[in-house]
Design goal:
Layout lengths: L28 H12 L12 H21 L6 H34 L9 E2 L4 H22 L6 H33 L3 E2 L16 H4 L17 E7 L3 H12 L6 E7 L10 H13 L3 E5 L6 H10 L5 E5 L3 E3 L3 H12 L3 E3 L47 H9 L7 E3 L7 E5 H6 L16 H13 L1 E5 L3 E3 L13 H4 L6
Parallel strand pairs: 1-2, 3-4, 3-6, 4-5, 8-11
Antiparallel strand pairs: 6-10, 7-12, 8-10, 9-11
Helix pairs in contact: 1-2, 1-4, 2-3, 2-4, 3-4, 4-5, 7-8
């Protein structure tokens, strides 16, 4: 972080005078300020097992992304479509930022509830812990970028002097706000203050509440971009499978649809997946091709639902392909999935994975299929009902045998009704988030399965979902990394709600 001398203390460090003593919650304002500055300086944030710390990081990440998009939105030398894209990104990051503030406040309140009894005369705070930390995050961004302005060799002395004076003000403002946070944390920890989580309810981001959106659901898409111009985020959860992940990512390099960004959530407990030589070689090739790959070391493990929500929170594109780390896809599959979901305007399109070790295991009784002959429509399925047996089509190599028998080829692909699709599913990101995403993870123990099924059922009930045949996705048929499968999400939880 760049600071003028006037903004530094006598020891040369950034002057921040909040308490260095952690509160009962395990952190102080100085911890927050240091983490904010470290992130902006490019240092990796060490995970901390404290109340809501991951949401502090998530809020700051979203604010930093918002800053970048706000800068881009002010350009006048780019097409209008680029400004529209920036505006969509700003809305998305702003929603995620506010979601992180609310989640942080919930964590803080939960931690206090187990350890602190409010005093009878406890004061109601009008500002929450999350709201103050959000303001500290924004001040950190202002300090960082104003500091950069003081270092510009191409700027006038007057510009540098003006920016230096503004920087001093910003540093004082952050110091004062940090002290306010410490006082609130101390008052909360001693029971002398209370607060409530305040919901933002960003109505303009909710298709069910914005009249410009819910009033136009059936309107045709006007001036639609070409499929090849649409960005797709590929979201890959992984755990202790570096070689399999390398195979999966290599198949992405061969895709005919090239506007890809890859996000990997690594929960391997033995070592980071990037320690693998095979994977590092693949990542170098992505870099050479100019394809962004973000690999996050995401521990501790809180279950697959939480890991998928972690990935969804990082999605930036309008469409996201959830791809398991042991799935190999044909080179045209991303393009075919994207074409189908854009044509149908549904919630998801999936390619069920096929196990080719079962080529000799033909099961005609499990090859029933219900094609969509018209537009994909919402369906409400209940686990175990008469339509639940649709999932048998995705066992073994059933789908491969069926598509071969029917003579289906990629150019003549068809859509069909599903109970769910595992391993390779493309979502409309807005629709998945609107249906609740995977936020139900807090209601599940870490050891569970079926989280992808539950999320798909919610999306299907609101927006419809389907399978794609021929599939083009193949299972590497490795041992599962989920040994305990007693808790099956769709059978123990109701359909998620917003």
């Amino acid at each position: 972080m760049i600071l003028t001398e006037a903004a530094r203390g006598a020891d040369g460090h950034a002057e921040c005078q909040p308490s260095m003593r952690p509160s009962a919650l395990g952190f102080s304002a100085a911890d927050i300020v240091a983490a904010h500055d470290a992130y902006l300086d490019g240092a990796p944030l060490a995970p901390r097992e404290l109340a809501g710390w991951r949401w502090i990081e998530e809020n700051h990440r979203c604010n930093a992304a918002l800053w970048r998009e706000e800068d881009k939105a002010r350009r006048t030398d780019v097409p209008d479509a680029e400004i529209v894209r920036c505006k969509r990104s700003i809305d998305r990051f702003n929603q995620q930022r506010n979601d992180a503030v609310e989640a942080l406040d919930e964590c803080v309140l939960g931690a206090l509830a187990g350890t602190v009894t409010p005093q009878p005369d406890a004061q109601q705070s009008s500002e929450t812990v999350g709201a103050i930390i959000d303001r500290l995050s924004i001040l950190s961004l202002k300090i960082f970028h104003m500091g950069l302005q003081t270092q510009r060799a191409d700027a006038s002395e007057e510009h540098v002097a003006n920016c230096s004076a503004k920087l001093d003000v910003l540093v004082r403002q952050r110091r004062d706000l940090a002290a306010c946070l410490d006082r609130l944390l101390e008052s909360l920890s001693s029971g002398r203050a209370i607060f409530r989580t305040y919901r933002q309810y960003k109505m303009y981001n909710d298709p069910a509440l914005n009249p410009e959106l819910y009033g136009r659901k059936d309107a045709p898409v006007v001036a639609s971009a070409r499929d090849e111009d649409i960005a797709v985020d590929v979201l890959v959860p992984t755990c202790n499978r570096p070689a399999a992940l390398a195979v999966t990512l290599t198949a992405l390099l061969a895709q005919t649809h090239t506007r890809l960004r890859v996000v990997v959530s690594d929960q391997g407990e033995r070592e980071a997946v990037v320690a693998s030589g095979e994977l590092r070689a693949v990542l170098r090739l992505f870099h050479a091709r100019g394809i962004e790959v973000d690999v996050h070391r995401h521990l501790p493990r809180r279950g697959m639902a939480e890991q998928r929500q972690f990935l969804l929170d990082r999605a930036q594109a309008s469409y996201a392909l959830f791809l398991d780390d042991d799935v190999l896809i044909e080179r045209d599959l991303v393009a075919r999935l994207l074409r189908a979901i854009r044509e149908q305007r549904c919630g998801f399109v999936g390619s069920a994975v096929m196990g080719l070790s079962h080529l000799g295991d033909v099961r005609p009784a499990q090859q029933a299929i219900e094609f969509w002959d018209g537009p994909v429509q919402p369906e409400r399925l209940v686990p175990g009902d008469t339509h639940w047996s649709r999932h048998h089509l995705h066992n073994a190599a059933n789908l491969y045998h069926l598509q071969t028998r029917l003579g289906l080829r990629p150019e003549s692909q068809r859509l069909y009704r599903v109970a769910w699709v595992g391993g390779c599913v493309m979502f409309d990101v807005t629709k998945l988030r609107d249906a609740g995403g995977f936020k139900f993870w807090r209601s599940l123990p870490p050891e569970h399965c079926g989280e992808d099924v539950l999320a798909q059922l919610a999306v299907m009930a609101r927006y419809g979902g389907c399978g794609l045949i021929p599939s083009g996705a193949y299972h590497q048929e490795l041992p599962t990394t989920l040994d305990k499968r007693d808790i099956d999400a769709p059978f123990v939880l109701p359909e998620p709600s917003r």
